[in-house]
Amino acid sequence: MRTEIYEHFHPDERDYVDRASEWISYAGAYHEQKLTDFLDPRQLYILETLSSKEDKVTIRLDGGYEASERKRALIAPDYSYLDDEDMGIRVLSISSDDHKISTLEHGDYLGAILGLGIKRGKIGDIQVLDDGCHVLVASEISDFIMLHLQQVHRVHVWTELLPSESLRTKEAELEPLDLTVASLRLDGIASDVYKLSRSKILTPIRAGRCRVNWKVEENPSTSLKAGDVISMQGFGRFKVLETDGMTKKGRFRVKIGKFV
Questions:
Q1: How far apart are CA 134 and CA 91, in angstroms?
Q2: Which fold has domain 174-259?
Q3: d(CA 94, CA 135)
Q4: What does 168-219 look like in DSSP terms, one character per residue?
Q5: What is the DSSP code string of 111-154?
Q6: What is the pLDDT along the chain (260 residues), one digit of tens a residue?
């Protein structure tokens, strides 16, 4: 049975599939509630796929605001009413009187928080603002971050917890890139976006450091399409905005949005 489930997912996802299956099984069979860490869209997809086969379970998803990308899941027996349950999400504000804070990026804030030894799963979406940022964090580590986070990329900062209604969100900025490529292959487009040679882009892809729509992708020849989100560990991520016909020389026109 478990082998049949594994067939639908990448081998690297098996540990998570096992954990998610256990959460669902315990909720259905033993009436146990489980509040997860923040899950990325791929993990949410797996959880919802597995739970769709279990009619004795209900799930609530919440990332702190409606359009959130990363969400916590509360898994419970199907008779449970979850709307009023505390999802354990806090809004952490990071600010500074140093004008350099306006130059900080998403990766700077994330790196500073993870540098405290905190797991990625305890951190939800990060909203980078002109005067700092708002971070959705798991309630169980919010006090720890408040106590220890004093600097982000050489900028001295201070922190405070805000009421959930004070959360400010900002649409992700995308740096536009217009490419002409020989094909829509992952390695070809990624090498142009990250300005690496075709041979050098193969290393992170084959090492499992590339994700397409949050799923590990090790096949360099995978074809991309409009809407795909690609992330490469250490290089950032980009989105295929549009494939816009072909040039007279038979190359594909592709519009890319690179997350900044």
A1: 6
A2: 3.10.290
A3: 8
A4: ---PPPEEEEEEEESS-BHHHHHHHHHT--HHHHHHHHHTT-EEETTEE---
A5: HHHHTTT--GGGEEEEEEETTEEEEEEEHHHHHHHHHH--EETT
A6: 567 777 888 888 999 999 999 999 999 999 999 999 999 999 999 999 999 988 899 999 999 999 999 999 999 999 999 999 999 999 999 999 999 999 998 889 999 999 999 999 999 999 999 999 999 999 999 999 999 999 999 999 999 999 999 999 988 778 999 999 999 999 999 999 999 998 999 999 999 999 999 999 999 999 999 999 999 988 889 999 999 889 999 999 999 999 87
Q: Tell me, what amino acid is at 21?
A: S
Report domain extents, the chain.
1-77, 89-166, 174-259
The answer to whether domain 89-166 has CATH 3.40.50.2000 is no
The amino acid present at 41, given as its one-letter code, is: P
User: Would you say 38 and 123 are in contact if contact means Cβ atoms under 8 Å apart?
Assistant: yes
Domain 1-77 fold: Ribosomal Protein S8; Chain: A, domain 1 (3.30.1370)
**How far is residue 63 from each of residues 84, 151, 215, measured CA to CA in Å?**
15, 25, 20
- Specify the pTM: 0.84
Distance CA 9, CA 247 (A): 37
